[in-house]
Write a structure and sequence with these properties.
This protein is an alpha/beta fold. Helix content is about 35%, strand content about 15%. It has a seven-stranded mixed β-sheet with strand order 2-10-9-8-5-3-4, sandwiched between helices. A three-stranded antiparallel β-sheet has the order 11-12-14. Strands 1-13 form a two-stranded parallel ribbon. Helix 7 packs across helix 8. The chain is globular and about 60 Å long. The two termini are about 30 Å apart.
Amino acid sequence: MSIPELYAEYLVNKNLRKVITQSFPVESSEETQIPISLLSNSLGTVEDQDFLKMTLTAELIIPQTQTHTQDVKKTIPIVQEKEEFILFGAGPAKLPKEVIRTAQSELLDYAGTHQSILEISHRSAEFMALNNATIQKAKDLLNIPDNYKVLFMQGGGTGMFSAIPMNLIGKTGKADYIVTGQWSAKAAKEAQKHGKINQVYPKLDKYGKIPEQGSWKMDPEAAYVYYCANETVDGVEFQEIPETNGVPLIGDMSSNIFSRPIDVSKFGVIFGGAQKNIGPSGVTIVIIREDLMGNALSYTPTVLDFAIIAKDNSLFNTPPTFAIYAMSLVFDWIINNGGVEEMEQRAIKKSSLLYNTIDQSGEFYTNNVEKDCRSRMNVVFRIKNDEGLENDFVKEAKSFGLIGLKGHRSVGGIRASIYNGKDLTIKN
Protein backbone atom coordinates (compact mmCIF):
# COMPACT_ATOMS: atom_id res chain seq x y z
CA MET A 1 0.00 0.00 0.00
CA SER A 2 1.38 3.42 -0.94
CA ILE A 3 1.76 6.23 1.60
CA PRO A 4 -1.22 8.20 0.18
CA GLU A 5 -3.30 5.02 0.40
CA LEU A 6 -2.11 4.52 3.97
CA TYR A 7 -3.15 8.08 4.81
CA ALA A 8 -6.57 7.49 3.25
CA GLU A 9 -6.90 4.40 5.41
CA TYR A 10 -5.97 6.50 8.45
CA LEU A 11 -8.76 8.97 7.69
CA VAL A 12 -11.52 6.35 7.45
CA ASN A 13 -10.38 3.64 9.83
CA LYS A 14 -11.07 4.53 13.47
CA ASN A 15 -9.29 1.46 14.74
CA LEU A 16 -6.16 2.38 12.83
CA ARG A 17 -6.25 5.95 14.19
CA LYS A 18 -6.59 4.49 17.67
CA VAL A 19 -3.55 2.29 17.14
CA ILE A 20 -1.51 5.24 15.85
CA THR A 21 -2.44 7.68 18.59
CA GLN A 22 -2.00 5.26 21.47
CA SER A 23 1.75 5.28 20.76
CA PHE A 24 2.21 1.86 22.31
CA PRO A 25 5.80 0.60 22.42
CA VAL A 26 6.90 -1.69 19.60
CA GLU A 27 10.19 -3.23 18.69
CA SER A 28 11.55 -2.26 15.32
CA SER A 29 14.80 -2.12 13.43
CA GLU A 30 16.36 0.07 10.80
CA GLU A 31 15.17 -2.34 8.15
CA THR A 32 11.54 -1.72 9.09
CA GLN A 33 11.55 2.08 9.20
CA ILE A 34 9.79 4.19 6.59
CA PRO A 35 12.31 6.73 5.27
CA ILE A 36 11.29 10.22 6.45
CA SER A 37 12.00 11.61 2.99
CA LEU A 38 9.48 9.19 1.47
CA LEU A 39 6.81 10.33 3.91
CA SER A 40 7.66 14.01 3.46
CA ASN A 41 7.40 13.73 -0.31
CA SER A 42 3.99 12.07 -0.04
CA LEU A 43 2.46 14.17 2.74
CA GLY A 44 2.43 17.91 2.24
CA THR A 45 -0.52 19.53 4.08
CA VAL A 46 -0.71 20.50 7.73
CA GLU A 47 -2.95 17.51 8.39
CA ASP A 48 -0.45 15.35 6.56
CA GLN A 49 2.36 16.64 8.75
CA ASP A 50 0.35 15.86 11.88
CA PHE A 51 -0.17 12.35 10.57
CA LEU A 52 3.54 12.12 9.87
CA LYS A 53 4.38 13.11 13.45
CA MET A 54 1.95 10.56 14.88
CA THR A 55 3.28 7.89 12.56
CA LEU A 56 6.85 8.50 13.64
CA THR A 57 5.80 8.63 17.31
CA ALA A 58 3.81 5.41 17.17
CA GLU A 59 6.35 3.65 14.93
CA LEU A 60 3.62 2.43 12.63
CA ILE A 61 6.14 0.29 10.83
CA ILE A 62 5.11 -2.66 12.99
CA PRO A 63 7.10 -5.89 12.74
CA GLN A 64 5.13 -9.02 11.83
CA THR A 65 5.57 -10.22 15.43
CA GLN A 66 3.48 -7.28 16.69
CA THR A 67 0.58 -8.50 18.82
CA HIS A 68 -0.97 -5.21 19.92
CA THR A 69 -3.30 -4.92 16.92
CA GLN A 70 -5.40 -8.03 17.39
CA ASP A 71 -8.56 -5.91 17.47
CA VAL A 72 -7.68 -4.20 14.20
CA LYS A 73 -9.18 -5.94 11.18
CA LYS A 74 -6.69 -4.47 8.72
CA THR A 75 -2.97 -4.34 9.36
CA ILE A 76 -0.86 -2.34 6.97
CA PRO A 77 2.54 -3.90 6.24
CA ILE A 78 5.10 -1.48 4.87
CA VAL A 79 7.66 -3.19 2.69
CA GLN A 80 10.96 -1.49 2.10
CA GLU A 81 12.00 -1.31 -1.54
CA LYS A 82 14.69 -3.86 -2.33
CA GLU A 83 17.07 -4.36 -5.18
CA GLU A 84 15.31 -5.65 -8.28
CA PHE A 85 15.80 -9.32 -9.12
CA ILE A 86 14.88 -10.80 -12.47
CA LEU A 87 13.17 -14.18 -12.30
CA PHE A 88 13.60 -16.75 -15.08
CA GLY A 89 11.83 -19.60 -13.29
CA ALA A 90 10.04 -22.19 -15.42
CA GLY A 91 6.91 -22.27 -13.30
CA PRO A 92 5.48 -21.06 -11.09
CA ALA A 93 6.81 -18.11 -12.98
CA LYS A 94 7.12 -14.35 -12.84
CA LEU A 95 3.88 -12.39 -12.69
CA PRO A 96 3.51 -8.78 -13.81
CA LYS A 97 4.17 -6.38 -10.93
CA GLU A 98 0.89 -4.61 -11.65
CA VAL A 99 -0.99 -7.85 -11.02
CA ILE A 100 0.75 -8.52 -7.71
CA ARG A 101 0.21 -4.94 -6.54
CA THR A 102 -3.49 -5.04 -7.42
CA ALA A 103 -3.91 -8.34 -5.61
CA GLN A 104 -2.09 -6.89 -2.60
CA SER A 105 -4.31 -3.81 -2.48
CA GLU A 106 -7.50 -5.90 -2.69
CA LEU A 107 -6.44 -8.80 -0.52
CA LEU A 108 -8.14 -7.67 2.68
CA ASP A 109 -11.43 -6.58 1.13
CA TYR A 110 -12.55 -7.91 -2.24
CA ALA A 111 -15.14 -5.79 -4.08
CA GLY A 112 -16.49 -4.25 -0.89
CA THR A 113 -17.49 -7.62 0.58
CA HIS A 114 -15.44 -7.09 3.77
CA GLN A 115 -13.89 -10.46 2.99
CA SER A 116 -10.61 -11.43 1.44
CA ILE A 117 -10.71 -13.19 -1.91
CA LEU A 118 -9.07 -15.98 0.09
CA GLU A 119 -12.19 -16.20 2.25
CA ILE A 120 -15.06 -15.48 -0.10
CA SER A 121 -17.56 -18.25 -0.89
CA HIS A 122 -17.44 -19.66 -4.39
CA ARG A 123 -21.25 -19.65 -4.26
CA SER A 124 -21.43 -15.92 -3.55
CA ALA A 125 -22.76 -13.54 -6.16
CA GLU A 126 -19.44 -11.69 -6.16
CA PHE A 127 -17.36 -14.75 -6.95
CA MET A 128 -19.78 -16.06 -9.57
CA ALA A 129 -19.57 -12.66 -11.26
CA LEU A 130 -15.77 -12.86 -11.14
CA ASN A 131 -15.84 -16.40 -12.54
CA ASN A 132 -18.07 -15.36 -15.45
CA ALA A 133 -16.00 -12.25 -16.16
CA THR A 134 -12.79 -14.30 -16.24
CA ILE A 135 -14.32 -16.74 -18.71
CA GLN A 136 -15.40 -13.85 -20.92
CA LYS A 137 -11.94 -12.28 -20.85
CA ALA A 138 -10.43 -15.58 -22.02
CA LYS A 139 -12.97 -15.75 -24.84
CA ASP A 140 -12.25 -12.20 -25.91
CA LEU A 141 -8.46 -12.58 -25.84
CA LEU A 142 -8.42 -15.76 -27.95
CA ASN A 143 -11.57 -15.11 -30.03
CA ILE A 144 -13.01 -18.40 -28.80
CA PRO A 145 -16.00 -19.50 -30.92
CA ASP A 146 -19.45 -19.82 -29.35
CA ASN A 147 -19.47 -23.63 -29.65
CA TYR A 148 -16.62 -23.95 -27.13
CA LYS A 149 -16.75 -24.01 -23.34
CA VAL A 150 -14.11 -22.51 -21.06
CA LEU A 151 -13.56 -24.54 -17.89
CA PHE A 152 -11.46 -23.89 -14.79
CA MET A 153 -10.25 -27.18 -13.35
CA GLN A 154 -7.66 -28.53 -10.94
CA GLY A 155 -4.89 -31.10 -11.22
CA GLY A 156 -2.63 -29.16 -13.55
CA GLY A 157 -1.36 -30.43 -16.87
CA THR A 158 -0.57 -33.79 -15.30
CA GLY A 159 -4.22 -34.18 -14.33
CA MET A 160 -5.14 -33.49 -17.95
CA PHE A 161 -2.85 -36.34 -19.08
CA SER A 162 -5.53 -38.59 -17.58
CA ALA A 163 -8.59 -36.43 -18.18
CA ILE A 164 -8.05 -36.19 -21.94
CA PRO A 165 -8.11 -39.94 -22.71
CA MET A 166 -10.81 -40.63 -20.12
CA ASN A 167 -13.10 -38.07 -21.76
CA LEU A 168 -12.22 -38.59 -25.42
CA ILE A 169 -10.74 -41.99 -26.23
CA GLY A 170 -13.97 -43.93 -25.70
CA LYS A 171 -15.21 -43.39 -29.25
CA THR A 172 -12.66 -45.76 -30.80
CA GLY A 173 -10.31 -46.72 -27.98
CA LYS A 174 -7.37 -45.32 -29.96
CA ALA A 175 -5.43 -42.05 -30.12
CA ASP A 176 -2.40 -40.53 -31.89
CA TYR A 177 0.35 -38.81 -29.88
CA ILE A 178 3.05 -36.52 -31.28
CA VAL A 179 5.95 -36.87 -28.84
CA THR A 180 8.47 -34.02 -29.02
CA GLY A 181 9.70 -33.84 -25.42
CA GLN A 182 9.29 -35.00 -21.87
CA TRP A 183 5.78 -33.68 -21.28
CA SER A 184 4.19 -35.22 -24.38
CA ALA A 185 6.04 -38.47 -23.57
CA LYS A 186 4.51 -38.49 -20.09
CA ALA A 187 1.08 -37.75 -21.52
CA ALA A 188 1.37 -40.68 -23.96
CA LYS A 189 2.47 -43.01 -21.18
CA GLU A 190 -0.50 -42.01 -19.02
CA ALA A 191 -2.93 -42.40 -21.92
CA GLN A 192 -1.82 -46.00 -22.42
CA LYS A 193 -3.80 -46.88 -19.29
CA HIS A 194 -6.99 -46.03 -21.11
CA GLY A 195 -6.58 -47.17 -24.72
CA LYS A 196 -4.25 -47.99 -27.59
CA ILE A 197 -1.78 -45.18 -28.22
CA ASN A 198 0.02 -44.67 -31.53
CA GLN A 199 3.14 -42.51 -31.48
CA VAL A 200 3.11 -41.06 -34.98
CA TYR A 201 6.87 -41.47 -35.54
CA PRO A 202 9.58 -43.61 -33.92
CA LYS A 203 10.97 -42.46 -30.59
CA LEU A 204 13.56 -39.73 -31.09
CA ASP A 205 17.17 -40.36 -30.06
CA LYS A 206 17.08 -36.99 -28.35
CA TYR A 207 14.59 -34.16 -28.15
CA GLY A 208 15.30 -31.03 -30.13
CA LYS A 209 13.37 -31.33 -33.37
CA ILE A 210 9.92 -31.95 -34.83
CA PRO A 211 9.93 -34.47 -37.70
CA GLU A 212 8.27 -33.33 -40.92
CA GLN A 213 4.54 -34.00 -40.82
CA GLY A 214 4.77 -35.93 -44.08
CA SER A 215 6.66 -38.64 -42.21
CA TRP A 216 4.00 -39.10 -39.53
CA LYS A 217 1.98 -42.32 -39.54
CA MET A 218 -1.47 -41.49 -38.28
CA ASP A 219 -4.00 -44.08 -37.12
CA PRO A 220 -7.16 -43.68 -39.24
CA GLU A 221 -9.22 -44.84 -36.25
CA ALA A 222 -7.73 -42.38 -33.76
CA ALA A 223 -10.34 -40.60 -31.62
CA TYR A 224 -7.99 -37.63 -31.30
CA VAL A 225 -4.48 -36.35 -31.98
CA TYR A 226 -2.48 -35.03 -29.04
CA TYR A 227 0.55 -32.74 -28.94
CA CYS A 228 2.39 -30.43 -26.57
CA ALA A 229 2.69 -27.01 -28.19
CA ASN A 230 5.75 -26.06 -26.13
CA GLU A 231 8.08 -28.41 -24.28
CA THR A 232 9.45 -26.48 -21.33
CA VAL A 233 12.22 -28.95 -20.42
CA ASP A 234 13.60 -29.42 -23.92
CA GLY A 235 12.93 -25.96 -25.38
CA VAL A 236 10.91 -27.20 -28.38
CA GLU A 237 7.89 -25.25 -29.63
CA PHE A 238 5.56 -25.80 -32.57
CA GLN A 239 5.39 -22.72 -34.76
CA GLU A 240 2.49 -24.15 -36.77
CA ILE A 241 -0.64 -26.04 -35.76
CA PRO A 242 -0.51 -29.72 -36.84
CA GLU A 243 -2.96 -30.77 -39.56
CA THR A 244 -5.22 -33.64 -38.50
CA ASN A 245 -7.70 -33.79 -41.38
CA GLY A 246 -10.74 -33.46 -39.18
CA VAL A 247 -9.64 -35.60 -36.24
CA PRO A 248 -10.01 -33.61 -32.99
CA LEU A 249 -6.70 -31.99 -32.09
CA ILE A 250 -5.74 -31.73 -28.43
CA GLY A 251 -3.18 -29.08 -27.52
CA ASP A 252 -1.27 -28.95 -24.24
CA MET A 253 -0.48 -25.22 -24.16
CA SER A 254 0.46 -25.02 -20.50
CA SER A 255 3.56 -22.97 -21.23
CA ASN A 256 2.62 -20.86 -24.25
CA ILE A 257 -1.12 -20.23 -24.00
CA PHE A 258 -1.99 -16.52 -24.33
CA SER A 259 1.51 -15.81 -25.66
CA ARG A 260 0.33 -15.65 -29.28
CA PRO A 261 -2.90 -15.64 -31.30
CA ILE A 262 -4.28 -19.10 -32.07
CA ASP A 263 -7.12 -20.35 -34.24
CA VAL A 264 -9.17 -22.13 -31.58
CA SER A 265 -11.51 -23.58 -34.20
CA LYS A 266 -8.73 -25.94 -35.31
CA PHE A 267 -8.76 -27.66 -31.92
CA GLY A 268 -11.00 -30.06 -30.09
CA VAL A 269 -9.45 -29.24 -26.72
CA ILE A 270 -6.82 -26.78 -25.52
CA PHE A 271 -5.61 -26.88 -21.95
CA GLY A 272 -2.99 -25.16 -19.88
CA GLY A 273 -1.87 -24.83 -16.30
CA ALA A 274 -1.95 -21.17 -15.31
CA GLN A 275 1.41 -21.03 -13.55
CA LYS A 276 3.53 -19.95 -16.49
CA ASN A 277 1.76 -17.30 -18.55
CA ILE A 278 -1.56 -16.51 -16.90
CA GLY A 279 -1.34 -16.70 -13.12
CA PRO A 280 -0.19 -18.61 -10.07
CA SER A 281 -0.40 -22.37 -9.76
CA GLY A 282 -3.67 -24.02 -8.81
CA VAL A 283 -5.99 -23.63 -11.80
CA THR A 284 -6.00 -25.27 -15.21
CA ILE A 285 -7.88 -23.66 -18.07
CA VAL A 286 -9.63 -26.03 -20.49
CA ILE A 287 -11.16 -24.88 -23.77
CA ILE A 288 -13.31 -27.66 -25.25
CA ARG A 289 -15.58 -27.97 -28.25
CA GLU A 290 -19.07 -28.74 -26.97
CA ASP A 291 -19.69 -31.81 -29.14
CA LEU A 292 -16.73 -33.61 -27.55
CA MET A 293 -18.28 -33.64 -24.08
CA GLY A 294 -20.51 -36.35 -22.67
CA ASN A 295 -18.51 -39.43 -23.74
CA ALA A 296 -16.36 -40.02 -20.66
CA LEU A 297 -15.30 -43.54 -19.76
CA SER A 298 -17.42 -45.04 -16.99
CA TYR A 299 -14.64 -44.86 -14.40
CA THR A 300 -13.77 -41.21 -15.03
CA PRO A 301 -13.69 -39.31 -11.71
CA THR A 302 -16.46 -36.77 -11.50
CA VAL A 303 -14.02 -33.89 -11.01
CA LEU A 304 -12.32 -34.79 -14.32
CA ASP A 305 -15.51 -35.19 -16.35
CA PHE A 306 -15.62 -32.22 -18.72
CA ALA A 307 -19.40 -32.42 -19.20
CA ILE A 308 -20.09 -32.26 -15.47
CA ILE A 309 -17.68 -29.39 -14.89
CA ALA A 310 -19.17 -27.49 -17.85
CA LYS A 311 -22.73 -28.03 -16.65
CA ASP A 312 -21.94 -26.31 -13.37
CA ASN A 313 -19.84 -23.55 -14.95
CA SER A 314 -16.69 -24.84 -13.20
CA LEU A 315 -18.40 -24.60 -9.81
CA PHE A 316 -19.29 -28.28 -9.33
CA ASN A 317 -16.93 -28.37 -6.35
CA THR A 318 -14.92 -25.65 -4.63
CA PRO A 319 -12.68 -24.14 -7.30
CA PRO A 320 -9.27 -22.52 -6.69
CA THR A 321 -10.84 -19.13 -6.03
CA PHE A 322 -7.68 -17.10 -5.55
CA ALA A 323 -5.99 -18.61 -8.62
CA ILE A 324 -9.03 -17.73 -10.75
CA TYR A 325 -9.03 -14.19 -9.35
CA ALA A 326 -5.32 -13.79 -10.11
CA MET A 327 -5.80 -15.18 -13.60
CA SER A 328 -8.51 -12.57 -14.17
CA LEU A 329 -6.02 -9.86 -13.18
CA VAL A 330 -3.46 -11.27 -15.61
CA PHE A 331 -6.05 -11.25 -18.38
CA ASP A 332 -6.69 -7.57 -17.61
CA TRP A 333 -2.96 -6.93 -17.81
CA ILE A 334 -2.71 -8.69 -21.20
CA ILE A 335 -5.69 -6.73 -22.52
CA ASN A 336 -4.20 -3.43 -21.30
CA ASN A 337 -0.84 -4.28 -22.88
CA GLY A 338 -2.01 -4.98 -26.40
CA GLY A 339 -3.52 -8.45 -26.18
CA VAL A 340 -1.99 -11.72 -27.32
CA GLU A 341 -0.75 -10.04 -30.50
CA GLU A 342 1.54 -7.81 -28.44
CA MET A 343 2.53 -10.74 -26.22
CA GLU A 344 3.73 -12.55 -29.35
CA GLN A 345 5.84 -9.60 -30.49
CA ARG A 346 7.42 -9.31 -27.06
CA ALA A 347 8.12 -13.05 -27.01
CA ILE A 348 9.87 -12.84 -30.37
CA LYS A 349 12.03 -9.93 -29.20
CA LYS A 350 12.97 -11.53 -25.90
CA SER A 351 13.83 -14.93 -27.35
CA SER A 352 15.72 -13.39 -30.27
CA LEU A 353 17.96 -11.46 -27.87
CA LEU A 354 18.96 -14.70 -26.19
CA TYR A 355 19.27 -16.88 -29.29
CA ASN A 356 21.36 -14.25 -31.09
CA THR A 357 23.72 -14.10 -28.13
CA ILE A 358 24.01 -17.89 -28.06
CA ASP A 359 24.57 -18.21 -31.81
CA GLN A 360 27.19 -15.45 -31.84
CA SER A 361 29.18 -16.78 -28.88
CA GLY A 362 31.59 -18.90 -30.90
CA GLU A 363 30.05 -22.07 -29.43
CA PHE A 364 30.79 -21.00 -25.89
CA TYR A 365 27.02 -21.19 -25.45
CA THR A 366 25.20 -23.86 -27.45
CA ASN A 367 21.55 -24.59 -28.15
CA ASN A 368 20.85 -27.97 -29.75
CA VAL A 369 17.26 -27.35 -30.80
CA GLU A 370 16.63 -27.00 -34.53
CA LYS A 371 16.04 -23.35 -35.35
CA ASP A 372 12.58 -23.85 -36.84
CA CYS A 373 11.23 -25.16 -33.53
CA ARG A 374 13.15 -23.20 -30.92
CA SER A 375 10.92 -22.19 -28.04
CA ARG A 376 10.06 -18.54 -27.51
CA MET A 377 9.15 -19.37 -23.92
CA ASN A 378 12.02 -21.54 -22.66
CA VAL A 379 15.50 -20.89 -24.02
CA VAL A 380 17.74 -23.83 -23.09
CA PHE A 381 21.49 -23.87 -23.60
CA ARG A 382 24.74 -25.41 -22.44
CA ILE A 383 28.06 -23.78 -21.58
CA LYS A 384 30.83 -25.81 -23.21
CA ASN A 385 28.92 -28.89 -21.99
CA ASP A 386 30.72 -28.25 -18.72
CA GLU A 387 28.58 -28.76 -15.63
CA GLY A 388 31.10 -26.95 -13.46
CA LEU A 389 30.98 -23.86 -15.67
CA GLU A 390 27.20 -24.01 -15.65
CA ASN A 391 27.06 -24.14 -11.86
CA ASP A 392 29.40 -21.16 -11.72
CA PHE A 393 27.20 -19.35 -14.24
CA VAL A 394 24.09 -19.87 -12.09
CA LYS A 395 25.91 -18.58 -8.98
CA GLU A 396 27.36 -15.56 -10.77
CA ALA A 397 24.02 -14.77 -12.38
CA LYS A 398 22.36 -14.70 -8.97
CA SER A 399 24.96 -12.22 -7.74
CA PHE A 400 23.81 -9.95 -10.58
CA GLY A 401 20.15 -10.36 -9.65
CA LEU A 402 19.31 -13.05 -12.22
CA ILE A 403 17.59 -16.03 -10.61
CA GLY A 404 15.87 -19.26 -11.66
CA LEU A 405 18.28 -20.07 -14.51
CA LYS A 406 19.24 -23.64 -13.63
CA GLY A 407 18.09 -26.18 -16.23
CA HIS A 408 15.59 -28.93 -15.47
CA ARG A 409 17.06 -31.57 -13.19
CA SER A 410 16.65 -34.27 -15.86
CA VAL A 411 18.76 -32.52 -18.51
CA GLY A 412 20.94 -29.99 -16.70
CA GLY A 413 22.36 -26.94 -18.44
CA ILE A 414 20.78 -23.50 -18.32
CA ARG A 415 17.17 -22.56 -18.97
CA ALA A 416 15.82 -19.02 -19.25
CA SER A 417 12.04 -19.03 -19.11
CA ILE A 418 10.69 -15.78 -20.55
CA TYR A 419 6.92 -15.98 -20.29
CA ASN A 420 4.51 -13.07 -20.66
CA GLY A 421 5.29 -11.66 -17.21
CA LYS A 422 8.99 -11.33 -18.01
CA ASP A 423 9.65 -7.90 -19.50
CA LEU A 424 12.53 -6.74 -21.68
CA THR A 425 14.58 -5.38 -18.79
CA ILE A 426 18.31 -5.80 -19.40
CA LYS A 427 20.77 -5.73 -16.51
CA ASN A 428 24.23 -4.45 -17.32
